[in-house]
Amino acid sequence: MSKIFLVITLLFFASSCAFRSVHRSKEITYTDSNADIPTKQLDVYAPKKAENLPVMVFFYGGSWESGKKQIYNFLGNRLARRKVIVVIADYPLASEYKLPAMQESALAAVNWSKDHIAEFGGDPDRIFVSGHSAGGHLAALIAVKEDELESSGNDKKLAGSILIDAAGLDMYSYLQKTSEGEGKKYLNAFTDDPAIWKEYSPMYFLTDDLSPMLILEGERTYPSIRGSRERFMKRVREKGIEDVTVKIYPKKRHIPMITQFFWTGGRIYKDVLGFIKEN
User: Locate the BD-FAE-like domain: which residues (predicted)?
Assistant: First the structure.
């Protein structure tokens, strides 16, 4: 996961597409600095003359310790051209900040969107959360802890969630086995407290009123991501939750699951836009 930042940056500078039909509003402050979280900004990508469009709030990956919203403008531009308003938010990163601050910031980004996205032509009743890798983990936390969000006008807090090769769906089990080995590097974000590992593992907060969820995973992703998702889905089945869909992308590895958004004719657009349309 640590290679994500470098690969996306290289692709960002390689991209030369023009997006004259997209209005970009950048460096919007959505948090007030306090003892728990710092001041952070987000960017909004919207089609010009947008009106009542669905919204995706996206969180990037980077092992919970790297990344920045600017290098994901390819995602915002391309989805905005397909009539989805995209909000891309920076959030606190390890090792200076831990998971509680990251979750609080991510929730604040979604609540900001509920309060303000109509100003950009978005529908506050059709907000989807999404993310790749560590960002997918944050999106999943929001989805399973939806009661911590502000209510929308239609009493639905989320329209759905889209997890792209999401890490950490069951970080508790993973760190119990690996915190002294390969998992030690994640303690910068998750701390060395098993209670925190569980509190920030989405699997343990699944309820039968979960909003629709789409999980997109590469066939050749990291074993830790695949294993975590399998345990997550076992819990979904045990609880009788029906509206969770998993789609596996043949031969795809972890980083290409997000970089494929550079190519507008790819399968991922069909899956993501289809899910948004259905919900």
Answer: 42-220
